[in-house]
TrEMBL record:
It comes from Rugosibacter aromaticivorans. One of its GO terms (molecular function) is 3',5'-cyclic-GMP phosphodiesterase activity. Gene3D superfamilies: Ribonuclease Z/Hydroxyacylglutathione hydrolase-like. This is 3',5'-cyclic-nucleotide phosphodiesterase. GO terms for biological process: cAMP catabolic process; negative regulation of glucose mediated signaling pathway.
Amino acid sequence: MKIRVLGCSGGIGGHHLRTTSFLVDHDILIDAGTGVGDLSIAELRQIDHVFITHSHLDHVTSLAFIVDAVGDMRDRPLIVHATEATIRILREHIFNWLIWPDFSQTPHNKPFLAYSPIHVAETVTVDSRMITALPAHHTVPAVGYQLDSGSASLVFSGDTGPCPEFWEAVNKIQNLRYLLIECAFPDQEKELAVQSLHLCPSLLMKELAQWQHEAEVFVTHLKPGQIEMTMQELATYSGAYHLRILQGHQVFDL
């Protein structure tokens, strides 16, 4: 299993900042932020599954454009895996004929998109690759994901504030190699982090204290303009944790 970072920023600004999306091998996306826009038409056609963490625009904005760009070139619908609550939001607020066509209903003889509900702790297997929804705590219904090749796992928290249930699930993963964890704000905006159910360096340290295993840790979803400040604060807190910033175009092998 090869995981390519298409985008991992908490916003846009500059040629290198793309919002969250990861390409798993050639046919699976985890989230569909603006990073998807860098894929070619040929690459977009190969995507069969999209696993959505939550409905916020920076994680779903390219979903509408994928089906619009290549839906008529494919012989089967793009399958969107998400919680029932997230699917309801996508139906009501994006694919609603007002913001974008409902491609789960059109074309009538061959819809471009299909929804597949997923529940926390449920595992979806795609050609021996196992993707499990993990608990998260955000302002809208949200999950993280464990990607398991069988020999190693990567965990992506998605957007989350403090969430003991997330760590309870992560602590059960025996083959964890990489942990991608959000840290959206610096500590000077801790109040905003708390209100919006995100993490900042001091909150992240409290979360990591619940972790019982070891893996390589990368922080993601940093806000443009605050990246250097946030990483400086993390460096003062990190102690035993060697925290690195997730980079666009980074590749993980499992």
